[in-house]
Amino acid sequence: MKFHLKTLSLPELEAALAPVQPSPVAVRKVFAAVFAHGASTVEEVCRAPQVPKRVADFLREHAEMPRLTVVERRKAEDGFVKYLFDSPLGGRVEAVRIPIFDHKYVVCISSQVGCALACDFCMTGKLGFQRNLRTWEILEQVMQIREEADRPVRGVVFMGMGEPLLNYTETLRAAQILSHPAGFAISGPSITFSTAGMVPAIRRYVREGHPYRLAFSVTSAIPEKRLKVLPIEKAHPLPELVDAIREYATVRRERAMIAYVAISGFNLGEEDARALKQAFEGIPIKVDLIDVTDPQGKYLPPSPEELKAFRDHLQILGAPIARRYSGGKDIGAACGTLAASQYGGVVLPAPPPVSIS
């Protein structure tokens, strides 16, 4: 059975190439050809500088590099671009290219086909869970977007389809490759995992000391309310999650990012702010407010007046409060709307690849 070159971390690649006893330099050159320089075929890797003939011959015989197929690229009015990918392993996933001012991109990527958590305001959850993505499928989303980008990709957020901490091994390997100097060279703090509260995985993550950031989806600190929209509350109740967040903030000596989906008439009252204060007393946090986006119309975003009043209530936290812009709403690219859909915006043709140093 052949091994997939885009699935291997540097130590794993060294082990795979062990039969031909490559030098450390040769292993690193193969790794860089795949990830830093974006080779799309095994033959391109074999022709890379400083890849010895015996290594190239071994790769031709034992390695493979299938790719995701871009079904379409769809651009929103605000400049967000949603990519719809089809995998040879089955299923479709989406990733979003997010412009940051006029000098870089952040890419929001998927970690699963569908999602098992069934958060009530999330369109991905309506799909149900189909399967975990492999490491190469996760990285391919970034690679293909990078190939077509007119500015560098400087950040990655695991906030697309799926719960990344339910696909722990594959997503962490992907992050290691994304942050490796000979890989994508994206700094660890510029890679974020969003979790709805997989407490055992959060605790494992903290023990292992990864440099990437976590964002914790709380949405309500009143357990009864949280359960209505986040079924994970039943498996991992809020006090259990808060304890894990406290450990994360203590070990990392930084504020934990609390993602709070703002829903009109539901979780924006003074009692909701008091519940947050009580739950996170003594824990350094920052709150990221995200307007709900529900194409079905069951949940509505807050009015400007409602949001302002809630932000005023949140002052009792003594913590930074930010409002996250959820772009690409007209193409189904906003937070909670990724569902392998095709509507809105402008469908883009495949641009010629642009080399980004």
From TrEMBL:
GO CC terms, sorted: cytoplasm
Keyword Ion transport: no
Domain of life: Bacteria
Alphabetical list of SUPFAM superfamilies matching this protein: Radical SAM enzymes
GO BP, one annotated term: rRNA base methylation
Radical SAM core domain: residues covered: 101-329
Cellular localization per UniProt: Cytoplasm
Chief site of localization: cytoplasm
Cofactors demanded by this protein: [4Fe-4S] cluster
Keyword tags: 4Fe-4S, Cytoplasm, Disulfide bond, Iron, Iron-sulfur, Metal-binding, Methyltransferase, S-adenosyl-L-methionine, Transferase
Entry annotated with the keyword Transferase: yes
Pfam family, one: Radical_SAM
GO molecular function: 4 iron, 4 sulfur cluster binding; metal ion binding; RNA methyltransferase activity
CDD domains (alphabetical): Radical_SAM
Entry similarity comment: Belongs to the radical SAM superfamily. RlmN family.
NCBIfam families given in the database record: PRK14470.1
Protein name: rRNA methyltransferase
Lineage: Bacteria, Pseudomonadati, Myxococcota, Myxococcia, Myxococcales
